[in-house]
């Protein structure tokens, strides 16, 4: 599957349904109608550990024009530029000084499937409201930093698996993968309208940082930690429990399955702006 990485503002507009198109210059992906493209939110463009998939774009049309031929009808909610010169100047910041009014631009329209709808058949599940839930999460990096993945498993209070899901992250650290696994799991619990979440992690560092016992010295973790704290505030109660790795085998298995699948497919995330 092809991948496009988006700045945070654009990714959030797409995720909320306010935008259903994107503009691409120098399209090295050769995007065409019918393509399914994984969309990645680059929350902090300088910190890959904050990037995560928001869903899949099913391309419905591709129109190619020169930048100088762009009309009002092409904007689709995009903020208008004050002038053509301002538009060229903006794109030069991303693509370099060779951009001009003669540069071709692809206007790519698509239907968007959020990440929970784009999961594989084995991961699809009917989402029903559930008040209390258990979350087991884990992350791993083969190299630290190196190819990384996050995995989480949601259980009801009787121990039945509601969802097991893995996300390939690209090159990150082990701590970033651990934190993102927690974030993804809490997001899914929130979608299921859970009010109480019992979090189980085998990372004592993450547990102690989330409970305030340890300070976070690594600045790369600050944005992810802040996002998780915002999520926690949306529940009635979130508890954090440190468990031995032996009791977190299912989440650990999801991480390794995700990394093994990525290695087999030899798919590395692209560097698209």
Please render the helix and strand layout as text.
Blueprint: E1 2-7, H1 8-15, E2 21-25, E3 36-42, E4 52-66, H2 84-95, E5 104-114, E6 132-141, E7 146-155, E8 161-172, H3 174-191, E9 196-201, H4 204-210, H5 222-232, E10 237-242, H6 249-265
Parallel strand pairs: 1-3, 6-9, 9-10
Antiparallel strand pairs: 2-5, 3-4, 4-5, 6-7, 7-8
Helix pairs in contact: 3-5
* Cα end-to-end separation: 17 Å
Overall pLDDT score: 85
Number of helices: 6
Radius of gyration: 20 Å
**In what range is the share of β-strand residues?**
25-35%
Report the CATH topology name of the largest domain: Nucleotidyltransferase, domain 5
What is the highest CATH level, the class of the largest domain? Alpha Beta
Write out key terms for the chains shown.
single chain, 273 residues, alpha/beta, Sulfate adenylyltransferase, Nucleotidyltransferase, domain 5, five-stranded mixed β-sheet, 10 strands, disordered C terminus
Structure, described:
With 273 residues, this protein is of the alpha/beta class. It folds into two domains: 2-114, Sulfate adenylyltransferase; 121-265, Ribonuclease H-like superfamily/Ribonuclease H (Nucleotidyltransferase, domain 5, 2-Layer Sandwich). The chain has six helices and ten strands. β7 and β8 form a beta hairpin. It is elongated and about 60 Å long. The protein starts with a strand and ends in an 8-residue tail after the last helix. Mean pLDDT is 85; it is low at 117-125 and 266-273.
């Amino acid at each position: 599957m092809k991948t496009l990485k988006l700045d945070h503002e654009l990714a959030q507009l797409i995720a909320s349904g306010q935008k259903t198109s994107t503009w691409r210059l120098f399209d090295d992906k050769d995007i065409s109608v019918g393509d399914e493209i994984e969309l990645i939110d680059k929350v902090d463009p300088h910190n890959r550990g904050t990037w995560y998939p928001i869903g899949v774009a099913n391309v419905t049309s591709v129109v190619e024009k020169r930048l100088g031929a762009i009309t009002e009808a092409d904007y689709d909610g995009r903020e208008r530029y004050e002038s053509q010169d301002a538009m060229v100047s903006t794109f030069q910041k991303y693509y370099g000084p060779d951009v001009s009014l003669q540069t071709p631009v692809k206007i790519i329209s698509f239907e968007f499937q959020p990440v929970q709808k784009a999961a594989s058949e084995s991961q699809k599940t009917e989402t029903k409201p559930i008040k209390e839930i258990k979350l087991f999460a884990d992350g791993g990096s083969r190299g630290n930093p190196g190819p990384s993945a996050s995995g989480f498993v949601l259980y009801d209070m009787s121990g039945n698996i509601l969802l097991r899901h893995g996300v390939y992250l690209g090159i990150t650290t082990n701590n970033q993968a651990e934190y993102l696994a927690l974030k993804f799991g809490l997001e899914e619990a929130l979608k299921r309208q859970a009010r109480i979440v019992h979090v189980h992690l085998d990372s004592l560092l993450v547990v102690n940082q989330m409970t305030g016992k340890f300070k976070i010295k690594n600045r790369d973790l600050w944005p992810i930690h802040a996002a998780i704290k915002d999520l926690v505030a949306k529940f009635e109660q979130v508890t954090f429990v440190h468990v031995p790795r032996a009791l977190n085998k299912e989440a650990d298995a999801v991480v390794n399955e995700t990394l093994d699948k990525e290695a087999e497919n030899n798919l590395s995330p692209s560097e698209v702006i």
